[in-house]
Design brief:
Largest sheet: 7 strands, mixed
Strand content: over 45%
Order of helices and strands: EEEEEEEEEEE
Number of helices: 0
Shape: globular
Length: about 130
């Protein structure tokens, strides 16, 4: 059973940066696409970015394009979300998720992701 643990959240001022990490254990990491999702207070969970198990066809929500970058280090069983130029509207709990369908692409559709971490809080405020 794949297990995911997020870290790296915290309080940051607008315009600042954070790097979130998602550490995986319990299964073969490089077989899984990894996604980042977020849920702001009073709102539904939404897709932020994902990276497939193979290849470089990453996917980003329009709201974070050119500000966030997803990457993975299969040797460390870890995926990263580099967040730059943060805005107050980026405030949310950030979750990583995994799906093992394979292929060189990934989708941010929520119900395609069976494995989830517990989340890490990101607060953007002055």
């Amino acid at each position: 059973q794949l297990q995911l643990v997020e870290s790296g959240g915290g309080l940051v001022q607008p315009g600042g940066s954070l790097r979130l990490s998602c550490a995986a254990s319990g299964s073969t990491f490089d077989r899984y696409a990894i996604g980042w999702f977020r849920q702001a207070p009073g709102k539904g969970r939404e897709g932020v970015s994902c990276i497939p198990s193979v290849g470089g066809n990453t996917n980003y929500a329009d709201s974070v394009k050119d500000r966030f970058t997803i990457s993975r280090d299969n040797a460390k069983n870890t995926t990263y979300l580099h967040m730059n130029s943060l805005k107050p509207e980026d405030t949310a709990i950030y979750y990583c998720a995994a799906e093992g369908a394979g292929g060189g692409w990934c989708s941010l559709t929520l119900n395609l992701w069976p494995y989830w971490g517990q989340g890490t809080q990101v607060t953007v405020s002055s």
